Amino acid sequence: MTNLEALEWRYATKKFDAEKIVPEEKVTILKKSFNLTPTSYGLQPAKLVVVKDQQTKEALYEHSAKQQQVLTASHILIFCIETEIDDFFIEENFKRIKEIRETPDDILAPFRDFLLKDFRKKSRLEKEDWATKQVYLAIGNMLTVCAAEKIDACPMEGFNTKKFDEVLQLKNKGLKSKLILPIGYRAEDDIFADFKKVRRPLDDVIVDFNN
Ligand SMILES: Cc1cc2nc3c(=O)[nH]c(=O)nc-3n(C[C@H](O)[C@H](O)[C@H](O)COP(=O)(O)O)c2cc1C
Fold first, then answer.
1. In a domain, 95, yes or no
2. Average of per-residue pLDDT values in the chain
3. Atom number of ligand 1 nearest to Cα 11
4. What is the CB < 6 Å shell around ligand 1?
5. Which end of the chain has fewer CB atoms within 10 angstroms, the N or the C?
6. Whether the predicted pLDDT of 68 surpasses 80
7. At residue 210, does pLDDT exceed 90?
């Protein structure tokens, strides 16, 4: 499949074949894709929670307006943001850079000091908004990887984040859920699979500035 064929093939899957499980090696590809997603300043203020047991899926289904894709998916990926983006969090990032690239302290110091100062000025809400943008980027990246790997998926905002946080005990982990991506293989009777894509005309959404 070309990239465009993969993007045409994918759709927001409303019902998965509950018998078909995404193999572990494919799930690993998705986990690595999450981690390879670029983030602002490279700070990675996010974690991906992976749910595959049916009991937890059933609990989450109750808090996602009973949307079938949550119940029938092979796995549910929950995109979470870190709630504590503080000095320690930023320092850890620079420790990692130093370790992996062996970059000397004096080279790293100006950028590290800039980030420490910049983030100390941000309110909790500003940091949350910033981190949330990063998970939106990650889900976009993973939707494309899912399509390339022929894994079906449904990006979703339609769930109760507070209830998800409770079920998955995210507060203890310093996390908040923002988006979910049930993944699996489309059910034969998912009528949405055959629907034509509805998009604005290309001319309408692309502005070729120099023409
Ligand atoms: C951020 C985001 C949130 C979405 N939330 C839901 C949702 O809660 N439930 C759902 O069935 N579809 C949801 N969708 C799917 C969109 O409705 C769908 O992607 C869009 O209509 C385009 O259709 P396509 O993905 O099949 O091409 C969401 C999509 C995005 C990008």
1. no
2. 97
3. 26
4. 11-12, 14, 67, 154-158, 197
5. C
6. yes
7. no
Distance, CA 154 to ligand 1 centroid (Å)? 6
Segments forming the whole domain that contains residue 129: 3-87+120-205
Q: What is the distance in A from the centroid of ligand 1 to the CA of 155?
A: 5
Beta strands in the chain (DSSP E): 46-51, 75-82, 152-153, 175-184
Residue 195 alpha carbon, nearest atom of ligand 1: 26
Residue 68 lies in a domain: yes
- Rounded Cα distance between 171 and 101, Å, is 33
Substitution site in 144, 154, 183 for ligand 1 pocket (most atoms within 8 Å of beta carbon): 154
pLDDT at 21 over 80: yes
In which residue are the tokens 């549910």 written?
76
Q: Which of 157, 161, 177, 196 to mutate to test the pocket of ligand 1 (most atoms within 8 A of CB)?
A: 157
Residues in the chain: 211
How far apart (Å, rounded) are the C-alpha atoms in residues 194 and 46?
34
**CATH code for the domain of 36:** 3.40.109.10
Task: List residues bridging with 156 in a β-sheet.
Answer: 180
pTM of the model: 0.97
Which of 144, 152, 120 has its CA nearest to residue 16? 152
pLDDT of 211:
72
